[in-house]
Amino acid sequence: MFAFTGILLGLVSSIIMQTILATVLPSVVEDLGGENLYSWVFSIYLISSTITIPIFAKLADLYGRKRFYLGGMFIYLVGSALSGITQTMGQLVIYRVPFCFFIV
């Protein structure tokens, strides 16, 4: 039961992260500048997840899903914290890359 709850909480946090970003990104771009990087905030997430999900899924099958899930959650938290303290749009694009590791 606890494992199922942990997985659900992880999925909910990922969904909230996506919907909140879509809502607040116009304000963030206004504050940070970098209108030319607007689409990259979403695109870098899709590109990096397309590349890494098959790799980490295979590694999770070989070495254990729990280890990779917990590691992915940690990376997700670090990426969230870095995204929260970003000073430029370029940094935000770079800090969005770790979010894809969570979806293993």
Q: What's the gist of this structure?
A:
This protein has helices spanning 2-32, 38-63, 65-84, 89-95. It is an all-alpha fold. 17% of the residues are buried.
Explain this structure to me?
It is a single chain. Helices cover 81% and strands 0% of the residues. Helix 2 (38-63) runs antiparallel to helix 3 and helix 2 packs parallel to helix 4. With 104 residues, it is an all-alpha fold. It is elongated and about 45 Å long.
Q: Beta-strand level of the residues, as a percent range? A: under 5%
Overall tally of structural domains: 1
Oligomer: single chain
Low-confidence stretches: none
How widely separated are the two ends?
Answer: 20 Å
Topology of helices and strands:
Layout: H1 2-32, H2 38-63, H3 65-84, H4 89-95
Helix pairs in contact: 2-3, 2-4
What descriptors fit this protein?
104 residues; mainly alpha; 4 helices; 0% strand
